[in-house]
């Protein structure tokens, strides 16, 4: 008798790993350097064109008629792993540098003109990204070896300022992004090589961003903002398999489809200026992570009937951000803040491709007004999770993770045109 | 007042800059040997302890012992884990190169009908030269395991004379296994015997009079003698872990072959009944195989061959498989009952020998339960371990003995039992199964 399905189990391994979780660590709040330095809060902070993404309702409140802003951040996440007792196994992620960018532009109609209440904005940034790579021989490689996601959101925005107190705005989010996921396959070659599967692809999708901004008094602002979920459809992904030669016909490179699901976010922010030189702001974010179940990969040629893709439950999270800005001199601004961002992933479902945990961030930064038109902003964010002992039950893989993330950002802000 | 804000920011910045140097690092667990003394650690056992792997499909195979497999013998792996806590010398006498020979996959053939998937072409290597004499006098031997050693043959000088493995290890110095053992004094030992007492009997479909299982009384008597000897020759600090007998009928040699035969015509497969012969009382009956019959892996390639009789072998009522090619439901029951009675004997003897001392010094690791978990698949660290042939990762090409990953699985079962036994007060780190390969393919 010949066995028809002698390699079913191999495929079984392949399938259950095909679900990858996206979560809190995936959302980057490093969208503009001033806000990043102020506890990553920005829903009620108006200075420049970046408000078009943080809260389109505030776009009409940018002081200058036109504004441009560019920035980038260097992010170095690092995660340590310790196997479950009594394992003495330890590992550490490899060095990964992520470099999200951001660019914003805004323009407001001329005062006393026909369009004085209307503002236009455009933004492009990376609100969701992840980069994690474990050493090649690490223990969890059959679950995840590498997982990186980068998404860009391009957003044209229009905003209407009813009065000096209230503005609303809406933006159309066009999202596009790429993902790479790689893991080892338990099929060994006689030359000592180990198999792996690598999935890569790009996807796109659309969503909306709406916001309301109130400024009841010169020293007090409130912002509310809602961004819809964004499903990036990957239609032509590439699945590659590296297996011993005798299996190469069994595992041809093939296409796949998937959806990279990004959650909706509701933000509420307040900022006050208790005295001339000091500005304080608070944001509360409510994030609908539950829209994500998994990153389920549909291969063009189903190479297994067995589908063991674990059902997961995500919880909505509420994160808190607080920040301040102190005007040291007319030209130097000192900023600081902190945030708390809880994990939406439950115990039992935490996989090493995104070893999520409750995150605490401390932020600081400096702003320099070089001349009336040009400012430079620097930001520094240190985020840490503490130790979290969790498991990924579907793969019977557990241990203790600890993550730290250091981010350094630089931004340029140009303002021009008439002052409102 | 304003200065306070400034002060807060500046100190925050300083804190942040100092944090930047903090890479995450997690303190490892505190482990230790507790009450265990490990020098010397001796492994007492059969081929499963010796690292025997990829033997041929015959009972009492001489192929299967060679350096590349011995290095992954589970006692060696356990010793390596002890060594992470306290330096330990654990030496084995290795059979260099191809040793006594082994099975290997020569190539994977893609059949014309691709839905079958690649099929292995398995090759038996010849014996290496002079493997019986490759003894290094400069080296101690801490792994005292002899392939095919039975509980019933520990005191048998005819086993001592006839086993090439015993001859190599003990040469002319010792008449039997116990005679060799008595010279040692372990501080710690693992003992896993009993599987071979029934294995060859089962591998021949219980029909070869040359291979009889060890009767229970004999099993109990010899096991008791072995434990008594260990008690006598060791001091009061000696501890030991004893593995019991797994249900061998779940091993691929018995479980791989289905009870129906897939015949292929123009790349369409259809399932055909297999016919077998069964001894009922004094008469021989022919009937269709059912899911409760185990067709032996050694018979698999012969099914469907044209042997000159009606139909083809195994596929016609007048051309059934012979009794020696099948472990039928009745015989299977006999094997399983025998194994469970062996295990009851082991449990009660361990209890009795523990009672002789002030505190327990022996503990049984329920390997029978461990191997049962493999039936249907067991996930660990994203790997699936199972009793599937080739892909299960645990069993080597003979369908009986273990791969490196299978050995690591057994080593972990021993270690977990040691850690769970309160009297030992030990916590030994477990192995990563992902560090060990199953079967490798060309």
Question: Judging from the principal axes of the Cα atoms, what is the shape of chain B?
Answer: globular
Overall average residue pLDDT of chain A:
88
**Poorly predicted segments of chain B:** none
**Major β-sheet strand ordering of chain B:** 4-1-5-6-13
The helix content of chain B, as a percent range, equals 25-40%
Element string of chain B (H = helix, E = strand): HEHHHEEEHHHEHHEHEEEEEHEHEHEEHE
Number of strands of chain A: 21
> What is the CA-atom radius of gyration of chain A, in angstroms?
23 Å
Which structural traits does this protein have?
heterodimer; A: 420 residues; mainly beta; 14-stranded antiparallel barrel; two-stranded antiparallel sheet; disordered N terminus; B: 442 residues; alpha/beta; five-stranded parallel beta sheet; 14 helices; 32% helix
Notes on the structure:
- The complex is a heterodimer of chains A (420) and B (442).
- In chain A, 4% of the residues lie in helices and 58% in strands.
- Chain A has helices at residues 8-16, 33-37, 51-54, and strands spanning 19-20, 64-83, 90-92, 101-108, 118-125, 129-133, 146-161, 166-189, 194-217, 220-227, 230-242, 254-262, 264-275, 278-288, 295-296, 298-299, 317-327, 332-341, 359-371, 374-392, 397-419.
- The longest helix of chain A is centred in the N-terminal third of the chain and has 9 residues, at 8-16.
- Residues 1-23 and 305-309 of chain A have low confidence and may be disordered.
- Chain B has helices spanning 2-19, 47-50, 67-70, 74-83, 157-162, 164-170, 177-181, 196-203, 216-233, 252-255, 297-300, 329-355, 367-374, 404-420, and strands at 41-45, 103-109, 119-124, 143-145, 188-192, 239-243, 260-265, 268-273, 275-280, 283-288, 294-295, 326-327, 362-365, 378-380, 383-385, 440-441.
- In chain B, strands 4-1-5-6-13 form a five-stranded parallel sheet, sandwiched between helices. In chain B, strands 2-3 form a two-stranded antiparallel ribbon.
- The interface between A and B is large, with 70 and 74 residues.
- Strand 8 (166-189) of chain A pairs parallel with strand 16 (440-441) of chain B, so a sheet runs across the interface.
